[in-house]
Design brief:
The chain is of the alpha/beta class. It is built from 14 helices and 15 strands. The structure holds glyoxylic acid and manganese (II) ion (2 copies).
């Protein structure tokens, strides 16, 4: 498959210390390989949820690409995919430099959120080899499972399990909307979930982690720069609200004799906007609302909705959720409905490792890097989007993993939508920058924090 693609070279020549011809597909070519997989004809964009046919096809694609590069591939106990470049003269006890992202999507998502980081990791291997870089430690490429939480409701599930932020019991209790458990879903695709759970040995092998991601905002477009380094990630969490009322006939039930669960549900939507808008850097969204049974001429008997809440820290995020919940309880009482609220996920705020961040920025603002990536400046950008990198950075207990992120310009500034975009040249600049960073880390290692 690779041999049949047109060969491209990175802008300004190969990264790293040596020369050499860069062969193989560019980052955008690799991304185009995925364009036919998981298209959602109903919603638009892509729906690639954990263990669906589409996501399994993407996994197969990654295994084939990694194998074609001579990398050894394995699936860890939490369904994360790994590909390893361990040069013969590198000691197995050396901690690895790890890069990667995810291949799953939100429902009707864009082509870049996740896959850009994965294809850039593969492209970086090609660039490093063409540049003659000789790693002194292993390079790991990882595809984290269920980053979006699109099937089982917990975002960054694969990295959370790896890091020990989600327990085995919590994972085994997860079910999708059809009632299929995580273990059953794994078994259906031939994966063994019996060893699911925290993986401290694997965590201990990670010396540092660098994730490249499409920017999910307008920071770079407005600055006129192609690349940024991440500074921080908002705290984020998900709460499920179940309102119960009385299912009935839309025509035969007088308006004053109803217990319609969609009434308090609507109050949550409005309260989310009101409370978040009144705060500083708060976000609250109801993006999923399911009335049951869901008929046009039926007063619903129950309604499930999910609140996605984010803020500068968990305390302020929780306070916002409490305020919204109070509004929900009051509205439920007025309508004569019941309400159950449960927290489904929580990820703390993260400020990425300052030493690694500055090391990367210094490298990417060097003359050599500027020539290769077209960056004049590499700004620091905060993000409200969640990432596996943030989960590794906030891993509980043990040794914190120095973690960093690179962002690639998104001309629309839109994400979690088919409108998400990155230009081919910027994708290649991102891969070239990632290769430079990995090359430095593979040879010199991360400076101690
Ligand atoms: C993932 O992209 C999230 O921020 O929810
Ligand atoms: Mn996403
Ligand atoms: Mn993502």
């Amino acid at each position: 498959m690779i041999a049949s693609r047109e060969e491209t070279s990175s802008p300004g020549g190969p990264p790293g210390n040596g020369g050499g011809t860069v062969t193989g597909p560019g980052a955008a070519d690799l991304l185009r390989d995925l364009a036919g997989t998981g298209r959602d004809l109903r919603r638009g964009g892509f729906s690639r949820h954990m263990f669906t046919d589409a996501e399994m096809a993407l996994r197969e694609w990654f295994v084939a690409e990694a194998s074609a590069r001579g990398l050894s591939v394995e699936v860890d106990r939490n369904a994360n995919l790994w590909a390893w470049w361990v040069p013969a003269d590198v000691g197995l006890t050396e901690r690895a430099v790890v890069t990667g992202s995810h291949l799953d999507s939100v429902p009707g998502g864009g082509a870049f959120d996740g896959p850009l980081g994965v294809v850039s990791a593969l492209r970086a291997v090609d660039l490093l080899r063409a540049a003659g870089v000789r790693p002194r430690r292993p390079l790991g490429l990882v595809v984290f499972a269920e980053e979006e939480g699109g099937r089982f409701g917990v975002p960054c599930l694969g990295s959370r399990l790896l890091a020990g932020s989600t327990s085995r019991a919590e994972a085994l209790a997860l079910r999708d909307l059809d009632g299929v458990s995580l273990a059953e879903a794994a078994a259906r695709v031939g994966l063994d979930a019996s060893r699911i759970g925290p993986d401290p040995e694997r965590m201990d092998r990670i010396g540092c982690f660098v994730e490249l991601h499409v920017e999910q905002g307008r920071g770079l477009v407005d600055l006129g720069e192609p690349l940024a380094v991440a500074s921080s990630v908002l705290a984020n969490g998900r709460w499920g609200f179940r309102f119960t009322g009385e299912g009935n006939h839309a025509g035969a039930t007088p308006m004053d004799s109803r217990a319609d669960p969609l009434l308090p549900a609507a109050h949550v939507v409005l309260a989310a906007r009101r409370v978040a808008a009144a705060g500083d850097s708060l976000r609250a969204t109801v993006g999923k609302l399911i009335p049951r049974p869901g008929g046009t001429n039926v007063v619903a008997s129950s309604a499930d909705l999910w609140l996605d809440a984010r803020g500068p820290d968990m305390q302020r995020t929780r306070r916002m959720v409490e305020e919204i919940t109070t509004a929900a309880r009051e509205a439920a009482e007025v309508e004569g409905c019941g309400l159950e609220v449960r927290q489904e996920a929580a990820n703390t705020e993260v400020h990425f490792d300052a030493v690694l961040r500055d090391q990367i920025r210094d490298l990417l603002t060097s003359r050599e890097a500027q020539a290769r990536t077209g960056s004049r400046d590499v700004p620091l950008l905060a993000t409200g989007a969640g990432h596996d990198a943030a989960v590794l950075a906030a891993a509980p207990g043990g040794r914190p993993v120095p973690t960093a992120m690179l962002f690639v310009r998104n001309p629309t500034g839109v994400s979690h939508s088919p409108a998400e975009h990155a230009e081919d040249d910027d994708c290649e600049r991102g891969a070239a920058a990632l290769a430079l960073v990995l090359g430095r880390l593979l040879v010199e290692g991360a400076q101690p924090s």
